[in-house]
Amino acid sequence: MSLIWIIAAGLAIILGGLLIASFTPAIFPAQGSTQAQQVDTLFRFMLAIGGAIFLLVNGVLLYSVIRFRARKGDNSDGPPIHGNTTLEFTWTVIPAVIVLILTIYSFQVWTSIRAPQPNEQTVNVVGQRFVWSFNYPITDKTLPQGVTMDQLPQAAKDAVTSGKALFTSSQLGTWVNQPVHAFLDTVDVNHAFWIPGMRIKQDLLAGRETDVRFTPVEAGTYRIECAELCGPGHGTMAGSLGGPDNTTLMGSWLVVYPDEQTYLREFYDPQAAAVLFPPTDPALLGQQVIGNYACKGCHTLTSQGWAGTIGPHLDGIGSRAGNRIPGMAAEDYIHDSLRNPAHFIVPGFTNDMTPFSNQNPPPGGATYMSDEDLNAITAFLLTQK
Predict the structure, then answer these.
(1) What is the bridge-based pairing of β-strands 225-226 and 200-204?
(2) Does 172 reside within a domain?
(3) Domain residue limits at 324
(4) Residue 273 and residue 297 in one domain
(5) Looking at the structure, do residues 152 and 42 belong to the same domain, yes or no?
(6) Which of 211, 275, 334, 363 could form a cystine bridge with 167, CB 3.0-4.6 A?
(7) Which DSSP string corresponds to 25-61?
(8) Domain count of the chain?
(9) Around Cβ 267, how many Cβ atoms within 10 Å?
(10) Residue 312 belongs to a domain with what CATH number?
């Protein structure tokens, strides 16, 4: 009879562990990548083992409390038990075997999700307080549809041939079944690049480039977050929803398009063409290039959809700039604020801004701002009356 009860308890523990493993991951975001499928399978396996052990330990504890409780009127000592070598050997070997199995399985998943894939899309990800930026290289093989090298202005042609042509977006764009290889870098403190729907998270370490791979399997939008506390604006590095109908993508999101043609038409081609054929009006050019920099992570600028709170509002800066420092023209003040932000600190704020230098090659670096971009951004900000 005792054997039957032991077998029944063992089966109940195993089934209970499987039940826990089946229901708990239901609270996770939908699996958006092949990596998510592998990670979730591993997690369910670990959860089944952990759930079974949880039921076993608490079941034995409950049984012991009931079976061996002190009886009324019994004031005697319990039996003197020194130890049980067989039991100690068992509870040492079984956990060791479990850990070994989990180590091998986890290593297989880790190597699989990091393995290079054919025809990978490469994207450079820059983490900076308090914004994500995604840089997409433009080459002679990735020109917008219908555009040839002969049609490009000379400056754009030189940038493409030298490998310096790129556009920067606050969104990470790709399409279904396209492997993505993201190179991660930070220009200040450590960050952590996390896309819950893809089940990927990778630290960005100061002074070291890291990378991560994933292959989307479902079209849609996926929130991008920073999982490393990086300062007072850490929370703003997570994608959010805004706008009148609360459906506008604010901050950084991964947008997975259903196919490559849709990705090119709606995401890549318009932004690449805007860089290759820049507007001649300095203010319009400034409106285009200001999004390449981390300003949106700290400042509010309604016309651009920014909602940062770490730095002063830029709404109306064109009207206030000329009154900041006596004797300094509005244009000079904006120039100085970008090159030397510590010169004048707006009351109520601290000096958290990184200077934008024209002496920090290569162009395209997060703290590099060419004189051309500086003049264009200044012209644009002066229009914000």
Answers:
(1) unpaired
(2) yes
(3) 283-381
(4) no
(5) no
(6) 275
(7) GGGSPP--BHHHHHHHHHHHHHHHHHHHHHHHHHHHH
(8) 3
(9) 19
(10) 1.10.760.10
Whether 267 and 289 map to the same domain: the answer is: no
Please indicate, yes or no, whether residues 168 and 105 belong to a single structural domain of this protein. Answer: no
Return the half-sphere exposure (C-beta side, CA atoms, 13 A cut-off) of residue 179: 11
Instruction: Give, for all 385 residues of the chain, the pLDDT tens digit.
Output: 577 777 777 777 778 777 877 776 677 888 899 999 999 899 989 888 988 888 888 888 998 888 888 888 888 887 787 888 888 898 899 999 999 999 999 999 999 999 999 999 999 999 988 889 899 998 888 888 888 888 888 888 888 888 888 888 889 999 999 999 999 999 888 999 999 999 999 999 988 899 999 999 999 999 999 999 988 888 888 887 776 777 778 778 999 999 999 999 999 999 888 888 888 888 888 888 887 787 877 888 888 777 777 888 889 998 888 888 888 898 999 888 988 888 888 888 888 787 888 776 554 456 788 888 889 999 999 999 8
256, 277, 298: which is the final residue of a domain?
277
End of a domain among 243, 277, 311?
277
Three-state SS for 333?
Answer: helix
Whether 77 is covered by a domain: the verdict is no
Q: Which residues pair with 137 in a beta bridge?
A: 166
346 and 239 in a common domain: no
73 in any annotated domain: no
Structure token digits, residue 247: 């459906």
**Calpha distance 292→178 (Å, rounded):** 25
Question: Do residues 155 and 265 share a domain?
Answer: yes
Residue 368 resides in a domain: yes
Alpha helices in the chain (DSSP H): 2-23, 34-67, 85-113, 154-161, 260-263, 269-276, 282-289, 317-320, 330-339, 371-381
The CA distance from 252 to 194, in Å, is 11
